[in-house]
Amino acid sequence: MLIYDEAFPSNEKHPIDLIQNRIINGHSKLFVGIIDGEVVCMSLIWNFNDLEFVLLDYMAVSSNYRNNNLGSQLFQFLSNRVRKLNKYMIIEVENYLFGSNTLERKRRINFYFKNGAYILEDFNYLLPSLDGTYPTEMILMVSPKYKEDILKGEQIKELVIRLYVDLYEKNTSDKLLNTIINRTPNKIKLNNKLL
């Protein structure tokens, strides 16, 4: 969990005991990469059993092992697992149009593009604060390429509701959730163009 702790800001992190309980209860799956007995990368996947999506909840590589293609290898491993389930992976990525670390955010989005993910165009998504501070403007991505070029708004609304209720422990009357739902277009195009 040291990799997890160093890689994500506090407003995007669940408490470690909650993550442990989710893994023990089978809600989340933890995957780790090990080199010479040392954990060098990690990911958490949340499977929505009754939806055609899983969430890439977290994915990170230890700072000592970055830029060695480990992130791509881990992502491809996860993508193959998801394909075998006949599902698609949803990825929440910080929106590069907000915040002070624009280049880092673009680099992260381009990483997913290069590894076969597609962005949900013109869809505004907010990650609720996980530490009681402020929500984060995010972009949703999907991998592998969805079976159609356009996702239905109703499908994405259902997914966002499940994210907020199941993962972020909000209720369906949550103001932020309803703002997202009310702004969701009827059709959402997919795009795989590098930034």
The main pleated sheet reads as: 9 strands, mixed
Strand content: 25-35%
Strand element count: 9
Which regions are unreliable across 5 or more consecutive residues at pLDDT < 50? none
- By oligomeric state, this entry counts as single chain
Instruction: List the total number of helices.
Output: 6
Question: What helical percentage do the residues reach?
Answer: 25-40%
Instruction: Using the CA coordinates, give the radius of gyration.
Output: 16 Å
Question: What shape does the CA trace take?
Answer: globular
Order of helices and strands: HHEEEHEHEEEEHHE
How does this model look, in words?
The protein is an alpha+beta fold and 195 residues long. A hairpin with a 5-residue loop joins strand 2 and strand 3. It starts with a helix and ends with a strand. The relative contact order is 0.14. The mean pLDDT is 91.
Tell me the layout of helices and strands.
Elements: H1 2-7, H2 16-24, E1 28-35, E2 38-47, E3 53-61, H3 70-84, E4 88-94, H4 102-114, E5 118-120, E6 125-127, E7 136-143, E8 150-152, H5 153-167, H6 175-183, E9 187-191
Parallel strand pairs: 3-4
Antiparallel strand pairs: 1-2, 2-3, 4-7, 5-7, 5-9, 6-7, 8-9
